[in-house]
């Protein structure tokens, strides 16, 4: 594979293709201006309009959400882990049956490994269009989204019905549930009662890492952010690392699984050696770009310009993408 062909494993921020009808709340006031991006993997979109940039299995999915100020994502849950870092803007994350159990505000660069088993939502509380980058455990991302009952009910009032097959049907487009397909059932009271309602105090220490704390910790060596030995100790099926200018190394290294590089600040030059059918080459990444590095390919990533530089790194571990909330 030539360096030019390797470019197909890079999704540039400016080339991201949004979907505005990805989920059941696409018509619900307050949530109807969301843009959803599926960058790597199949994602969890409920719409056939969702574009997938890179479909190569990685053991996890990479996506993004773009929202204007005051726009929110409705309360939902996944069967596997979900972690976000803020690329642009200021965001409030909230959780619980009605979104009132706890909340945290994240600034640019902060990362949140959201506990599974609880409904969560988020909104852009900044003054400009904001973007958060998402990591979902598993190649199939757990088979979809579980919505809080009121989200499904509100969506029906605005013309969107979710079938038990996980697909959306829009009455505003003349669509209806196909014969033999029932609506997605609401969670029962018994199921809802099993869901924990952790407070902000319970969640923050083990699930949130702040950008400037990580910048300080990465002064000499990269920081493992999410992982069995990470700042946020967990085994969600992937590990997330963080490095800055001081901890970047020109030493070549490889991974057993495809890995993903996601610059937060600054421009980064990624170099790779020849081998496994690949020619040697390099590429430069900017904030918002996402690069998939093939497994077993020797590579490095180093800042290519002066100034602030930071980068997130994601790689699968081969573990099941299991629950993060320990209770």
- Structural class determined from secondary elements: mainly beta
The figure for the number of domains is 2
Strand arrangement, major sheet = 1-22-19-24-18-16-17
Find the CATH topology of the largest domain: Jelly Rolls
What's the pLDDT, averaged over the residues?
94
Content of β-strand: 35-45%
Query: Could you tell me the number of beta strands?
Result: 24
State the fourth-level CATH superfamily of the largest domain.
Jelly Rolls
What's the helix-strand series? HEEEEEEEEEEEEHEEHHEHEEEEEEEEE
Major β-sheet, in short?
7 strands, mixed
Distance between the termini: 47 Å
Task: Describe this structure as you would to a colleague.
The chain is mostly beta strands and 327 residues long. The protein folds into two domains: 14-206, Jelly Rolls (Sandwich); 210-316, Jelly Rolls. Helices cover 10% and strands 36% of the residues. The chain contains five helices and 24 strands. Strand 13 and strand 14 form a beta hairpin. The longest helix is centred in the middle third of the chain and has 9 residues, at 149-157. Pfam families: Cupin_2 (PF07883). Residues 69-132 form the Cupin type-2 domain. This is Cupin domain-containing protein.
Give me a quick take on this structure.
The protein has 327 residues and is mainly beta. The protein has helices spanning 3-6, 149-157, 189-193, 200-207, 211-217, and strands spanning 10-11, 35-40, 52-54, 60-67, 72-78, 82-88, 91-95, 102-106, 111-114, 120-124, 130-137, 145-147, 160-162, 168-170, 208-209, 223-227, 232-233, 238-244, 259-265, 268-272, 281-285, 290-293, 299-303, 310-316.
């Amino acid at each position: 594979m030539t360096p030019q062909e390797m470019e197909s494993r890079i999704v540039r921020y400016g080339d991201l293709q949004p979907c505005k009808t990805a989920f059941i709340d696409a018509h619900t006031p307050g949530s109807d201006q969301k843009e959803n991006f599926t960058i790597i993997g199949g994602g969890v979109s409920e719409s056939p309009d969702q574009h997938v940039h890179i479909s190569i299995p990685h053991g996890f999915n990479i996506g993004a959400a773009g929202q204007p100020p005051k726009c929110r994502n409705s309360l939902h849950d996944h069967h596997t882990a979900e972690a976000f870092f803020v690329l642009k803007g200021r965001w409030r994350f909230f959780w619980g049956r009605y979104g009132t159990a706890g909340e945290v505000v994240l600034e640019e660069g902060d990362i949140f490994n959201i506990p599974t088993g609880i409904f969560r939502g988020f909104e852009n509380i900044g003054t400009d269009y904001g973007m958060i980058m998402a990591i979902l455990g598993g190649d199939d991302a757990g088979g979809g989204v579980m919505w809080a009952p009121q989200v499904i009910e509100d969506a029906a009032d605005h013309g969107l019905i979710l079938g038990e097959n996980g697909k959306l049907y829009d009455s505003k487009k003349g669509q209806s549930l196909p014969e033999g397909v029932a609506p997605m059932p609401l969670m029962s009271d018994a199921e809802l009662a099993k869901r924990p309602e952790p407070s902000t105090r319970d969640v923050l220490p083990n699930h949130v890492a702040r950008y400037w704390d990580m910048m300080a910790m990465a002064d000499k060596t990269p920081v493992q952010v999410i992982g069995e030995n990470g700042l946020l100790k967990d085994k969600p099926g992937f590990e997330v690392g963080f490095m800055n200018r001081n901890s970047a190394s020109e030493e070549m290294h490889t991974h057993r699984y495809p890995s993903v590089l996601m610059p937060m600040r600054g421009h980064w030059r990624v170099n790779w050696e020849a081998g496994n059918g690949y020619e040697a080459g390099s590429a430069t990444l900017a904030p918002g770009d996402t690069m998939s590095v093939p497994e077993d390919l020797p590579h490095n990533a180093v800042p290519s310009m002066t100034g602030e530089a930071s980068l997130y790194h994601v790689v699968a571990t081969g573990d099941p993408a299991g629950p993060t909330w320990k209770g």
